[in-house]
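Appendix B, record 7
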Amino acid sequence: MLNVRANIEDPRNVKLIYDVLKFSPPEIEPAVLFATNNALVCETPDDAMKVAYEIDRSRYDALALDGTFYQKSGIISGGSHDLARKAKRWDEKHMAQLKLQKEKITEELKEVMKKTRRQGELTTVESQIRGLENRLKYSQNDLEASKKSLAEYDRKLDNFTRELDQIGPKIAEIERRMQQRDLKIQDIKESMNNVEDDVYAEFCARIGVANIRQFEERELVLQQERAKKRAEFEQQIDRINNNLEFERSKDTLKNVQRWERAVQDDEDSLETFKQTEARHRQEIEKDKEKIELMKQEKAAHKALVDQTEEEMSKARRDVQALAKEVAAIHQSIANIEARKETMKNKRHNILMQAKMDAIEIPLKQGSMDDIGQQPQQQPQQGGQGGDTSSDTSAAAGGATYERESLIEIDYQQLPGNLKNISDADQVKKTGDTLSKELQAKFETLEKIQTPNMKAMQKLNLVSEKILSTNEELEAARKRAKKAKAAFEKIKNERCTLFTNCCNHISDAIDSIYKQLSRNEAAQAYLGPDNPEEPYLDGINYNCVAPGKRFQPMSNLSGGEKTIAALALLFAIHSFQPAPFFVLDEIDAALDNTNIGKVASYIREKTTNLQTIVISLKEEFYCHADVLVGICPEPADCLVSQTLSLDMEKYENGDQQ
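Structure tokens (predicted):
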């Protein structure tokens, strides 16, 4: 058994399939061990492929968690390539909504916790009320049970009284019958003795006994008979005595006294229950009064809590209103500051533009030299250049605006119609009009240029250059046309060759697949994804195994994939056959049935197809014409030895 922990450390979590299986009963352990062998299970298909083929010189059977099975023979089966596309992903919008909902619930929870702190006393009062209500319920249950027990005792007393009245006449009748039976028994005994004496008088006189009974006492048989009779009479007497004892035991007077005592006890118990009931009623009344007081206290506490919450809500609303007012004031201040900075920047830009255009502005205070760009800062050393540079730039800009604020413009030279403008819209409109006039004058100045005396010379040079360029362009067009014609010729030849090959393979692959499968129900389709230029895109190849529905090639079993691949190889080979064909262990994933089908197909094509097959299965190489084996030869160094066997000698089975 492979020691995974000792031999495989990367990738992680590689285990034997046998170690992760749970099976029952334990007796099947050898079968499970035989079936799993040294197969390994990995987390991902990449890990499984690495373990199967790349981890060391030895190969292993590896299975990924998504079902992809990498066999050490090179066959890959199962798996799912689109699990990642089918995985669910959270929608960002939905996540944002959930976060908002979480924040809202958190705020609500905080409010509830605040209320919970104030409801401690209310909870205590409610607990006391529930306790008193439970006591009241239990007291009422005891009262109902006592009433039911009292009624049951009254019913039993009535039944006992009726039974006592019925027993008296029965006892008298039984005693009378017993007396009559005693008299009858006595009379019968006397009659029996008299009859026996009369009957056996002569016999008794002859044998010298007073009566026959003496004779019977001496005779064993008569004695046994007498004992039997005596036993019968004794049994009867015992029954009568038992009846008498039973009747005597039924002492009616004692029963009456016993029942009277029971009635008295029940009455005493009833009185006790009544007293207990009265006491419980008093306790219930007291509990009701306490409950009423607690309810009043609860109502008072609740009113106080509601009042406090209302005051807190009002205070909270006032605070929110004040916060909104403060925020509005801060916003207004920020807007004013922003407009102020904007106006300063705008004034700075206008002054800078006037200075750059050499426009003299009449000034009452200051000079044009005070107008300047923000001073250039020396680059900062070290890693603090970002924040320090921005702070310094802001400080320099503030200093520039502060210096320019000392400049006072003289507006006395303005025309009278421009001095009296006070409306902001009119100022903006007049400024736009003046800007347009100024721009028009600048455009007029740009159009007026100094005549270029060398223009004709430059024109001649440009004309000559245009002629030369046109000649080069025409030559390039001819070369491009010739190259395009050559390209189209090669493209057509390439498309023709590829199409002929593809059409031949598409026509031949279905029949080859049927011959390999030995079933006319098998189907194979091959066609290009791009019919116009098939070599630019992929080729679509699908097979339908006999007796199965259509499914993608990746879902076929290892044997079905092998048959499909062989059909494609033989179809490609049929287009331009090679002198011979080399196949390396194509039977690794095939069962004996499919091995026989492939071997029979290759055997049938031996006239047109010479094949060299590397195989380790007897079911396959038994169909070969010649077998060649390779084994090591003992020597000082490793040397290979070849062994060959002509199988044609054994076709008819006449040689060994």
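Remarks on this record: The chain has 18 helices and 13 strands. The chain has five domains: 4-83, 121-297, 360-377+392-416, 459-576, 578-594+603-656.
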